[in-house]
């Protein structure tokens, strides 16, 4: 008899954790498992802002997939997922087609299209290793251009971050710490560099407590980040951005506009005819699609709500917890056992503000400063241990204490 074929799409936090758990839980005779991913490496998305700022080399955030999967149990295909054909239970990849009996969708996020003129063409984003490296190299290129130009263009040294949510704040915190080093490298005086952050609302970090927001804004401003509140981006060009604040149109000359204004679930699954909620796939508590009981969903692609019905913000923690339940439920399904429910993830909030600073709400308690930054490092290290044991933790872990 043919073994059931389990296909996992995407090796982000949710997808790779599903694969690693399944290779431990299932015997070779129970199922054939295939993992499909764009690259030959998994990356820690929660470290991308450091890669983009240059405080952590991107190679450190990359984990070779062949080093963590058991290739005698999992077929690994490097390819792009193009579409899902539910009627025939097939997934179309760029180079081939796969049949599945059970599918796990873990395709993550991409920048949200906002319809702002020029944004797609001229803004940079931080969504994967290549985009993070591009931001770092672009900033350095502009500093180098400035240092070498006879006619100096101040737009080379103005950097604008669009969006004061977690990603924008984390990136600003890292970059402002790194600017002195970049200035030294390119013989530029630090006061010539301006790092702006535009935020449409009255305050940064929506969903964080007011005290944490005040702490974060003060910390960033004291180190030189120029925060412009209630600023609505109107247009983005290659050498300037135009925004509206206090009823007036304002301009900042810049070649570096990094859009951190929001992400959305990967739209690859949109045409698959699954039930969607807030552009994500609606799932039962056991993480099966409400429309198709051969499709499990993890991470950013899965819509989850708490007991009060409020959407749970997607985080790495959510993706990992869901992956644990999905792996367990796939094993149960193959063994004709009952599926278990995923408990709503506690909505802890955390934003770092550079290497040794941050704000967080952990189990309803507010945490400020180095303690918040340390919690993030503990989380990242714990994740590495879960994924690849001591070997991966010692190779990739962050053991910096203060
Ligand atoms: C800069 C930054 C900092 C963050 N900081 C934190 C934090 O501190 N704590 C936290 O909990 N969360 C953080 N997050 C959010 C967290 O990273 C995401 O919620 C998490 O990555 C979601 O996991 P996932 O498994 O859904 O997808 P992802 O981790 O996004 O993985 C999806 C994978 O699928 C691959 N893929 C996409 N499309 C295709 C395709 N068509 N074919 C093949 N492969 C494809 C992608 O390359 C990607 O690797 C941060 C995010 C960013 C960008």
Summary keywords:
25 strands; 4-stranded parallel sheet; binds flavin-adenine dinucleotide; alpha/beta; 2 domains; FAD/NAD(P)-binding domain; 9 helices; 5-stranded parallel sheet; 402 residues; elongated
Any overview of this molecule?
By secondary structure, this protein is α/β, with parallel strands linked by helices. It has two domains: 5-111 and 264-346, FAD/NAD(P)-binding domain; 119-261, FAD/NAD(P)-binding domain (3-Layer(bba) Sandwich), CATH 3.50.50.60. Helices cover 31% and strands 25% of the residues. β12 (194-198), α7 and β13 (225-228) form a beta-alpha-beta unit. α1 runs parallel beside α8 (316-334). The longest helix is centred in the C-terminal third of the chain and has 27 residues, at 370-396. The model has no long low-confidence stretch (mean pLDDT 94). Bound molecules: flavin-adenine dinucleotide. Flavin-adenine dinucleotide (FAD) is lined by residues 10-15, 36-38, 45-46, 48-49, 80-81, 106-109, 126, 128, 167, 170, 266, 268, 298-300, 314-317, 319, 350, 376. The site of flavin-adenine dinucleotide has 35 residues, from α1, β2, α2, α6 and α8.
């Amino acid at each position: 008899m043919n073994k059931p074929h389990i296909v996992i799409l995407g090796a982000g936090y949710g997808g790779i954790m599903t694969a690693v758990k399944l290779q431990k839980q299932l015997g070779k005779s129970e199922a054939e498992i295939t993992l499909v991913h764009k690259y030959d490496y998994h990356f820690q998305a929660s470290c991308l802002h450091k890669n983009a700022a240059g405080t952590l080399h991107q190679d450190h955030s990359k984990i070779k997939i062949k080093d963590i999967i058991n290739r005698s149990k999992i077929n690994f295909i490097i390819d792009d997922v193009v579409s899902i054909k539910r009627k025939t239970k097939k997934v179309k990849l760029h180079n081939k087609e796969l049949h599945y009996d059970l599918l796990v969708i873990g395709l993550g996020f991409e920048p949200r299209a906002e319809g702002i003129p020029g944004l797609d063409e001229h803004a940079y984003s931080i969504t994967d290793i290549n985009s993070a490296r591009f931001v770092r190299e672009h900033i350095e290129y502009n500093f180098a251009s400035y240092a070498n130009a006879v006619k100096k263009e101040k737009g080379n040294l103005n950097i604008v971050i669009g969006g004061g949510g977690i990603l924008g704040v984390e990136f600003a915190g890292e970059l402002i710490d790194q600017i002195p080093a970049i200035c030294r490298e390119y013989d530029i005086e630090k006061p010539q560099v301006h790092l702006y952050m535009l935020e449409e609302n009255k305050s940064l970090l929506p969903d964080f407590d007011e005290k944490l927001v005040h702490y974060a804004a003060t910390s960033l401003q004291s180190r030189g980040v120029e925060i412009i509140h209630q600023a609505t981006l109107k247009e983005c060009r290659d050498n300037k951005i135009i925004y509206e604040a206090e009823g007036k149109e304002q301009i900042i000359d810049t070649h570096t506009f990094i859009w951190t204004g929001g992400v959305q679930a990967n739209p690859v699954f949109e045409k698959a005819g699954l039930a969607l909620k807030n552009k994500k796939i609606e799932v039962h508590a056991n993480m099966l699609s409400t429309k198709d009981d051969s499709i499990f969903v993890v991470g950013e692609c899965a819509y989850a709500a708490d007991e009060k019905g409020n959407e749970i913000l997607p985080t790495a923690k959510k993706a990992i917890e869901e992956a644990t339940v999905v792996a367990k439920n796939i094993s149960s399904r193959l063994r004709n056992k009952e599926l278990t429910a995923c408990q709503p993830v506690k909505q802890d909030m955390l934003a770092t503000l550079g290497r040794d600073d941050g704000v967080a709400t952990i189990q309803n308690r507010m945490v400020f400063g180095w303690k918040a930054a340390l919690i993030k490092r503990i989380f990242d290290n714990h994740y590495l241990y879960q994924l690849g044991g001591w070997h991966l933790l010692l190779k990739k872990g962050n053991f910096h204490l203060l």
